[in-house]
Design goal:
Order of helices and strands of chain A: EHEHHHEHEHHEH
Oligomer: homodimer
Strand order of the largest sheet of chain A: 2-3-1-4-5
Number of strands of chain A: 5
Mean pLDDT of chain A: 87
Largest interface: A-B, 17 and 17 residues
Low-confidence stretches of chain A: 60-66
Strand content of chain A: 5-15%
Chain lengths: 200, 200
């Protein structure tokens, strides 16, 4: 069995950076946005469309349908979601078979639940996440703290909804992870070698 | 500042064993039941009484009092609880000042919240905890699985209630810890050197 690490993360927690640095430190593969690209290739849908379906559904799967047109469009959305999730499931499994790797998000902890993997969840308090997001803002962009916090909450709400819909589990619940790491007031660069020791 | 680790744990998760082994591996002090003994000495109450107050209150702090006798007894209980918690608060702070150590339970993560500490929470699924409890049963004792599971749940309910009452925080919520460690299907002896690396 390969050394497989899955990493879920709150937006702005530095989880993605930790995953990237961990992969580098452990000399293993790192998969994140690459999976969206692969899903697009598998399903012959555009990357933008796949990203949109993943990030914005399921908002409401059982709306009160008014007239047949809406019902058809609703069925179509569900089918697209199923196609995309099926591709995601296959890709994640095949990446885990291929070599040691770290997979960010994509319900990988659930998809690989029967394998001997290490499931990490990274989180931080809201101020710490706000500061991290502000550091990433490129010059020219102007956002208030309130706007950034609203964005953090919206993205996390979508991640939670997506995860819970496909796994039936609560996103960010300690039960579903082997290690939950709090990155409040922590520099990811500094914590990486410490966390890497867990896998050496 | 000393190297201070606080460790909260679900009953049967092996958290106490992990704390003991970690202290040994890191050559630092280990405090667990010793704190009860110190509280008893400070308050001049018996260890048994202190243990009982800690493990069984607050069941209901604001009952509908019927007549004055009950009200007096209720006031007395609250005063004893306050005395015991105050002693606990002072002892935990003084242990943390003294030397590097690991402190099990006792709301130490909250009491030392203004210090630079590492807060661990150890948990496991119910089957894994059941198995650990069964291993500890001495010959002659006979319990059904259901009885053991009920005991696990009762103890954890009390721990959660105690922690939440004094800290205003949710026991076992990832937000309150730096590392949450899942010990499901894991031998504590084997995971200890791995976790110890985080502190070396």
């Amino acid at each position: 069995m390969n050394k497989i690490i899955t990493l879920g993360r709150e937006f702005g927690s530095g989880g993605r950076e930790l995953a990237r640095r961990l992969a580098e430190e452990l000399s293993i593969e790192y998969y994140d946005k690459e999976i969206i690209a692969e899903i697009a290739e598998h399903t012959q849908l555009s990357q933008e469309y796949v990203k949109n379906v993943i990030e914005n559904t399921p908002h409401s799967l059982f709306p009160i349908t008014i007239g047949q047109t809406f019902a058809y469009s609703h069925d179509y959305t569900i089918k697209q979601m199923q196609t995309i999730y099926k591709a995601q499931d296959e890709i994640v499994k095949s990446l885990a078979e291929k070599s040691d790797c770290i997979i960010v998000g994509r319900c990988a902890d659930y998809i690989l639940r029967d394998k001997d993997i290490c499931r990490i969840f990274v989180h931080a308090d809201i101020n710490s996440r706000l500061e991290r997001c502000k550091e990433r803002i490129t010059s020219g962009e102007q956002f208030t703290d309130k706007q950034i916090i609203n964005k953090i909450k919206r993205i996390d709400r979508n991640r939670a909804r997506y995860y819970e819909f496909y796994t039936g589990q609560k996103w960010g619940d300690i039960k579903n992870y082997d290690f939950c790491i709090n990155t409040t007031n922590i520099k990811i660069k500094e914590i990486t070698p410490v966390i890497a020791k867990l896998f050496k």
